[in-house]
Design goal:
globular; Rossmann fold; 5-stranded parallel beta sheet; Helicase, Ruva Protein, domain 3; 18 helices; 16 strands; transcription regulation; P-loop_NTPase; Sigma-54-dependent Fis family transcriptional regulator; single chain
């Protein structure tokens, strides 16, 4: 089932159940979606991963406490974690000093208990409108930022074909398995698929399956209730619930413990799971994208991965090619990273020299896109002029084969000219500038190598 555009989500954080229920009824009657938690620790997990547009925060949680220290600690955490969700503080024990501290720590407004419904709703509406305006301004600012890598205009035929295939399945709810070597961009393309799906307005929750210990698998994925086990002092929201109506990205899926694979299989088959410590069956409404650099055929043959789970995960499977396999993207992609890091480090516009471009083309790139990105970041930091030479790339033996045959100097020159023309949309002046030669010199080489100028 596809996700629909949702109304604003208000998170109520209060230790009293009657207060949570009362606020939920008032807010839902106005058309808001409402989530409730009884302690700031539970709110920290939720606000990190789920869609929350506004928080109503009680200031006191321990019995016989009126200082507001717990609420202040949560506001301080929000500042440190750069949580941008607006917070409206609420307490029955207000004083001028507490109100000042609350506002200094970033709360947008303050409501005394017992509250006036009309005023409370007015504040909620006002803060949501201000937050929406802030998001619009951020989007306008982001238009000036470099294009995300997942939206990069790839030059190589193999990547253009892959993107066509991804675009075809992105709008469906089919489970997708992304395979490929480390550094080929699997996380970026999981994001690409999510952004082009009907679930784009709901969360994309990423889970590194290799980082979850076997004994914490159920708690991490399905959540737990308070007291479910010895250290369960607070309820925890699982990743499936955090990704509700959105996408759950299971990175390094091959690392899931064999003993836990049946539990994941059950959710994929039935759409049902139980929170650890609860007997109530929950319904999962998520789209699964998973990724691995492992060979599943070998894992299945060695009985390290369930074959039935594999088939559930890979309704559609896409292999991301190595950087060496998309050679036409190497120099343009280096230029993309050059622009990104020049912007990040406030450097003047820099260019790659012809020798640097040649070195990039001859290198094997065992670390793929991740390595290229690192190389270009380091080069931007080391460069003191306007042009980055091959010496600043520190590629070692740049003549390592990238899967292409060793080229003669003329072959390398022809390839670089061809790429410069593609990158400049066949504008000779721009291509000559990229190559560091004059227009007349480029015209002579275009004629020599029988390449069309496009002008």
């Amino acid at each position: 089932m596809h996700a629909q555009l949702a109304s604003p989500v208000v998170l109520v954080i209060d230790d009293r159940e009657d207060i949570r229920q009362s606020l939920q009824l008032i807010l839902e009657d106005e058309g808001y979606q409402v989530k409730t938690v009884e302690h700031p620790l539970a709110a920290q997990t939720l606000v990190r991963h789920a869609k929350v547009d506004l928080m109503l925060l009680d200031m006191n949680f321990a019995l016989d406490t009126t200082s507001g220290q717990e609420g202040l600690a949560f506001l301080n955490w929000c500042q440190q974690e750069q949580i941008s969700v607006p917070v409206v503080a609420m307490t029955a024990w207000s004083n001028t000093e507490l109100i000042v501290k609350v506002m200094q720590l970033g709360a947008r407004d303050f409501v005394e208990k017992p509250w006036n419904n009309k005023r409370l709703l007015q504040i909620v509406k006002q803060q949501l409108a201000l937050s929406d305006l802030s998001h619009q301004n951020q989007k306008l600012a982001q238009q000036l930022q470099p294009t995300p890598l997942s939206q990069y205009q790839w030059q190589s035929p193999v990547m253009q074909q892959l993107l066509t295939q991804l675009d075809t399945v992105a709008a469906t709810d089919a489970n997708i398995l992304l395979t490929g070597e480390n550094g080929t961009g699997k996380s970026e393309f999981a994001r690409y698929l999510h952004q082009r799906s009907s679930r784009r307005d709901a969360p994309l929750v990423q889970v590194n399956m290799g980082a979850i210990s076997e004994n914490l698998f159920e708690s991490e994925m399905f959540g737990h209730v308070k007291g479910a086990f010895t250290d369960a002092k607070q309820a925890r929201i699982g990743r499936f619930e955090l990704a509700e109506k959105g996408t759950l990205f299971l990175d390094e899926i091959a690392n899931i413990p064999l003993s836990q694979q049946a539990k994941l299989l059950r959710v994929l088959e039935s759409g049902e799971y139980e929170v650890l410590g609860s007997s109530v069956t929950q319904q999962a409404n998520v789209r699964i994208i998973s990724a691995t650099n492992s060979d599943f055929s070998e894992l299945i043959a060695n009985q390290q991965f369930r074959e039935d789970l594999y088939y559930r995960l890979n309704t559609m499977e896409f292999r991301l090619p190595t950087l060496a396999e998309r050679a036409a993207d190497i120099v343009p992609l280096a230029g993309y990273f050059l622009a990104e890091f020049s912007h990040k480090y406030h450097r003047d516009s820099q260019q790659l020299s012809p020798s640097a471009n040649a070195a990039l083309m001859q290198y094997s790139w065992p670390g793929n896109i991740r390595e290229l990105r690192h190389v270009m970041e380091r080069a931007v930091l080391l460069c003191t002029g306007q042009q980055i030479g091959s010496d600043l790339l520190h590629l070692g033996n740049a003549a390592k084969s990238n899967g292409l045959p060793m080229m003669t100097l003329e072959q390398a020159e022809r390839q670089l000219i061809k790429m410069a023309m593609q990158q400049s949309a066949n504008q000779v002046a721009k291509a000559a500038h990229l190559l560091g030669i004059t227009k007349s010199s480029l015209y002579r080489r275009l004629e020599k190598y029988e390449l069309a100028s496009g002008e």
